[in-house]
Design brief:
- This protein is mainly α.
- The chain has one domain.
- It has nine helices and two strands.
- A two-stranded antiparallel sheet has the order 1-2.
- Helix 4 crosses helix 9.
C-alpha cells in the first residue's frame, strides 16, 4: 500500500508541476474548476446524497457558483491580475470556517448529531471548495510560473510525510482517538519540524531568486509553517469526522492508494486561506 501511495503521489505531483508551470492562469483556473467539481462529487457522498438527481443538483449548484466567481474576481484570459480585495474577502470566509471547525472538532463526539444534517454538510462544502479554487487561482495570477502553488503543496506534503514517519516510529500519545486513532502528538511535532525546515529553505529561495524580503518578512514567513501544520491537521481531522459519521473509509476511489481527491487534499484545502492571505498581506509587492 505504501508503494502504491508513493507512486500515485509522484504521478500527481509531476502532473501538478507540469500543469502549474505551463498552463496560462485562465486555462489553469478552468482545469482547477474541473478538479473542484470532482471533489464536489465526492463531497456529495459525505453529505449523504444517495440519488443521482440530488447529487446532480448539488453539483450543478456548485458549478454555477464557480462560474459566478469568474466575473466577480475578474478572471479572464486577458487580465494579468484579479481583484485581490474580493479574493481576501472570500478567503476570510474560508479561514473563519476552519477556525470554527477547530472548535467543532473539540466537541466531538458530543456534537455528532450535527454532522448528520445534510444541509449543514452541503453548506460546509461551499466554505471549503470555493475558497480553495479562489486561493489557488490567486496564487497563479500572482506568479504565473506557479512557484507559490508548488511551495504550498510541498509544505503540506512535508507536514503529512513528517507526521507519518515520526508518528509511526515514535508516536504513542493519541491526538484525537475518537476521530483518527493512528494520529499522535509526536506525529504532529514531527510534521511541524519538517515543515519549518523546508519552509526556511523555501523562504531563502524566495528571498534570493524571486522577491527580496525584509527580516520581518523572513521571520513571519518561516512562522507561517506553524499555521500550515495546524490547519493541515484541522483539515485532516474534519474530513475524518465527516467520513466517520457517514461510516465510510475513503471519500472516493479515484486515486489508487489514497482513496478520493478529498482524501488527498483534506489538509491542503484548510491551509490555503491562511497561506494565501499571509502572502497577500505580508508581501504586497507580489500583487
Amino acid at each position: 500500500m505504501l508503494k502504491q501511495r508513493i507512486i500515485t503521489a509522484l504521478v500527481l505531483f509531476i502532473a501538478l508541476v507540469l500543469a502549474t508551470y505551463f498552463l496560462p492562469p485562465f486555462h489553469y483556473s478552468l482545469a482547477l474548476a474541473v478538479v473542484v467539481l470532482l471533489a464536489g462529487r465526492e463531497w456529495s457522498s459525505l453529505i449523504g446524497l444517495e440519488s443521482a438527481g440530488s447529487s446532480s443538483a448539488y453539483l450543478l449548484s456548485l458549478a454555477i457558483m464557480l462560474a459566478g466567481l469568474y466575473p466577480l474576481l475578474g478572471v479572464t484570459p486577458t487580465v494579468g491580475a484579479i481583484d485581490s480585495l474580493r479574493v481576501m474577502m472570500i478567503l476570510l470566509l474560508g479561514f473563519g470556517f476552519w477556525c470554527l471547525a477547530m472548535l467543532m472538532l473539540r466537541g466531538y463526539p458530543d456534537n455528532a448529531q450535527h454532522w448528520n444534517d445534510k444541509s449543514l454538510i452541503a453548506t460546509m462544502s461551499i466554505f471549503v471548495l470555493l475558497p480553495t479554487w479562489v486561493g489557488i487561482v490567486q496564487l497563479k495570477y500572482l506568479l504565473p510560473e506557479g512557484y507559490l502553488i508548488i511551495a504550498l503543496v510541498v509544505l503540506v506534503a512535508v507536514v503529512d510525510i513528517g507526521g507519518y514517519f515520526v508518528g509511526r516510529s515514535l508516536g504513542h500519545t493519541k491526538l484525537a482517538p475518537q476521530l483518527s486513532p493512528k494520529k499522535t502528538w509526536e506525529g504532529v511535532w514531527g510534521g511541524l519540524v519538517a515543515c519549518v525546515c523546508v519552509g526556511a529553505g523555501l523562504v531563502w529561495a524566495l528571498h534570493n531568486f524571486l522577491q527580496p524580503l525584509t527580516q520581518f518578512q523572513v521571520i513571519a514567513l518561516i512562522g507561517l509553517s506553524l499555521s500550515v501544520t495546524l490547519f493541515d491537521v484541522i483539515g485532516d481531522l474534519t474530513e475524518s469526522m465527516l467520513k466517520r459519521n457517514r461510516h465510510i473509509k475513503d471519500s472516493g476511489s479515484l486515486l489508487p492508494g489514497h482513496g478520493g481527491i478529498m482524501d488527498r487534499v483534506d489538509g491542503l484545502v484548510a491551509v490555503i486561506p491562511i497561506y494565501v492571505m499571509t502572502l497577500l498581506l505580508l508581501i504586497p509587492e507580489l500583487r
